[in-house]
Design brief:
single chain; about 350 residues; Rossmann fold; about 45% helix; binds 1,3-dihydroxyacetonephosphate; binds iron/sulfur cluster
Length: about 350
């Protein structure tokens, strides 16, 4: 087996050889050993947009998870090929909204509510779910623009069907003044709507999905921080539950968390509730600030962490040898419908 140094120098030499034909986007949640070789870092949407803007790159080695590579494939040209260094790098949240379950849910919801619902889909979802959304007049959202898109959706229809993350959906709708009792949960395992409220009052239908990483932050963790570090501010990602977001001082996307800490004065103290690799990186970048993870066990995203030095090298070598592994290619039909939901988002957020 190659040593770390040997792997690093092989990666560097392949990067030099392929030059501008190769583009390596790296999501904020990737390991440092991977991020050091990234040509750009960002959240999933920024990275897909950067891939699309980079017309020279023929090979895009996406260091992130499967749905991000799919989005990059859909936004880039036919000549640009997208690869995922490890096919096991999925997203448990995206996998919670299966297209077959969604196709079963939709006619039931139509029966209950008639033609009053518009789907909104977090970009953390499969291309098939994005296509479903596009087909029914809906749009994608990211954690950075969810508010704008929920507001837009209510100009189109009376009700929103939000997939696959119930927490981002609930937190966003709550911030816009929608009472929690007017939000029902769609249970895709039982095909039922979980609510005690009269149906006419329901404004938001939340798919029963979640991020297993961000569910690792609890109200108990916020109480421990309040007790042990009374002057510390707590900032969390809106994929955390409503209770945790309510107990925190602030909540926002990874981009928002990064920008908030960048702006924070030297000496300020922060407990951050988001993925481990990002929290560790923020801690290293701000030695003048007191920063901890909201959960002392840090909460890694295991699937993000599938991408490591050996997998990155394996992927790059396969491209160098002209037989690339793990190409991510969304079929044309799905791409056309999914693009309509992505474009509705890009036009507004
Ligand atoms: P953002 O980077 O859009 O905040 O999303 C967080 C996330 O969980 C990515 O998988
Ligand atoms: Fe999916 Fe959560 Fe990991 Fe993001 S952090 S890739 S939403 S499991």
């Amino acid at each position: 087996a190659l040593s770390v140094k040997e792997m690093e120098s092989r990666i560097l030499s392949i990067k030099q050889k392929l030059g501008s034909k190769l583009f390596i986007p790296g999501h904020h949640y990737q390991k440092d050993e991977v991020i050091q070789f990234a040509d750009a870092t960002g959240d999933s949407l920024q990275l897909a947009q950067l891939s699309a803007a980079n017309k020279e790159a023929e090979h895009i080695v996406f260091c992130g998870v499967h749905f991000m590579a799919e989005t990059a494939d859909m936004l880039t040209t036919k000549q640009q090929h997208v690869y995922l260094p490890d096919m096991r790098a999925g997203c448990s949240m995206a996998d919670m909204a299966d297209i077959y379950q969604t196709e079963q849910a939709w006619p039931i919801l139509q029966q209950l509510f008639g033609d009053t619902i518009i789907p909104l889909t977090y970009v953390n979802s499969t291309a098939a779910i994005k296509a479903f959304t596009g087909r029914h007049g809906g749009a994608c959202v990211t954690s950075s623009n969810a508010k704008e898109l929920v507001q837009w959706a209510f100009t189109q229809k009376q009700r929103i069907f939000f997939l696959p993350d119930q927490h981002l959906g609930r937190n966003t709708a709550y911030d816009l003044g929608i009472p929690l009792k007017n939000m029902a949960v769609w249970n895709p395992h039982k095909n039922i709507l979980e609510t005690n409220e009269p149906l006419e009052n329901i404004q938001v239908i939340l798919w029963k999905g979640h991020c297993s990483v961000h569910e690792g932050f609890t109200v108990h963790h916020t109480e421990v921080v309040r007790k042990e570090h009374p002057t510390m501010q707590i900032i969390v990602h809106p994929e955390c539950s409503r209770e945790v977001v309510a107990a925190a001082d602030d909540a926002g996307s990874t981009k928002y968390i990064i920008e908030t800490i960048n702006r924070a004065p030297s000496g300020s103290a922060w407990a951050i509730g988001t993925e481990m690799n990002l929290v560790n990186r923020i801690m290293k970048q701000h030695p003048d600030k007191h920063i901890i993870s909201l959960n002392e066990n840090f909460c890694p995203c295991l699937t993000m962490n599938r991408i490591d030095l050996p997998h990155l090298l394996w992927s790059l070598e396969s491209i160098e040898q002209g037989q690339p592994h793990n190409r991510i290619q969304v079929d044309e039909y799905t791409t056309a419908e999914a693009l309509s939901s992505l474009e509705r988002m890009l036009a507004r957020g």
